[in-house]
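Lecture 7, part 2: worked example. A protein chain together with glutamic acid.
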Amino acid sequence: MANVFDNVLEQIDKISELMKLNDKEIKILSNPKKILEFDVNVKMDNGSKKEFKGYRVQYNNARGPTKGGIRFHPNVSLGEVKSLAFWMALKCAVVNIPYGGAKGGVIVNPKELSQKELERLSRGFVRNVSDHIGPMKDIPAPDVYTNAQIMSWMLDEFEKIKGKHAPGVITGKPIELGGSLARSYSTSMGGAYVLREIVKIREQEPADIKVAIQGFGNAGMNMAKILDNWGYKIVGVSDSKGGIYNKEGLDIAQVINIKSSKKTVTAYDAKKVSNDELLELDVDVLVPAALENQITKQNADNINAEIVLELANGPTTPDADKILFEKGVVVVPDILANAGGVTVSYFEWVQNLYGYYWKEAEVLEKLEEIMVNSFKEVYATQEKYNSNMRNAAYIKAIERILAAEKLRGNI
Ligand code: GLU
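Predicted complex, written out as structure tokens:
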């Protein structure tokens, strides 16, 4: 598979032309500030020792401490973690929260580990990065195949090493350990607010909108739940084992039950579709909510949706982006569409630093304000440059990052 970071460099190239950036600016955007690469040694339940390759990339910290999740997945690579860290820097800048961008990852299939092994891996990861993370340095969070329990072990390990409480070192924690209300579904909620604004502009009604969602992890599952509650018609969903489709709409509550008992949505009684077929269904809105590089030049022409809302990071390649744009598909880019997650992570961190916790309604109200305003800014920038939302979001984000770099005297 091509290195995903090549896609990032291609994106930077294109945007540099549009924004007329100079070499120094391009260099800052194209290079992560710090790359940590290490082996996490884990004692397995059978007494043997295993090494798992781990990464943490701190891409840019001009606007604040670096921020971004940790992914446990067999396909993790340094190129992927670098790309995800770059997108985090842009994401935090698009919604204007005071963070830079980072990402971490471990090459592992966590589904093959016992809970004890997973705990030892999580603690081992933190031991490798403990001098490089901290509430004012770099703040991890969950990402693909990591969750609140893993954040708890990581927090505990960090606090043991430092000998003090430091809840602001990591977000996406359970409520009992200083997590924020609404964090668990905030990525999807943020995307839903943005979709609602677009639907308003297009003068459509949710009941007339057919949606397909690729991926049924935290982001995809909560998106299905929220949009179903808001009256949209969810006709297709999928997970890593495949997808299901019913043009009349799926019973989402039942799909969620089946996913939790049978571990896959494919156990639900409906027409089976592959993950590739799901992307090409006859729908109005397509929500990629799984991994990167799903919409490529091979299938972009077959996408039937009018709106693609990128809840996953990097689901569309630059070639595919061009094809979708020419077809008139509205692509809501990942760095805006899925920024609700890190926005509530920011609220969690603020609450940790204060030691004062907000009600769920307060969190949602603040999230809604940030998402709607950011969408409006991106939309206005799109009109100004007569371009698409991805370029507009990149322009807004890069302007903010470079302004901070300039003020620090780095440019
Ligand atoms: N992993 C999430 C993302 O890609 C959340 C990051 C965070 O909360 O720091 O946006």
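DSSP finds 14 helices and 13 strands in the chain. The mean pLDDT is 97. Keep this in mind for problem set question 3.
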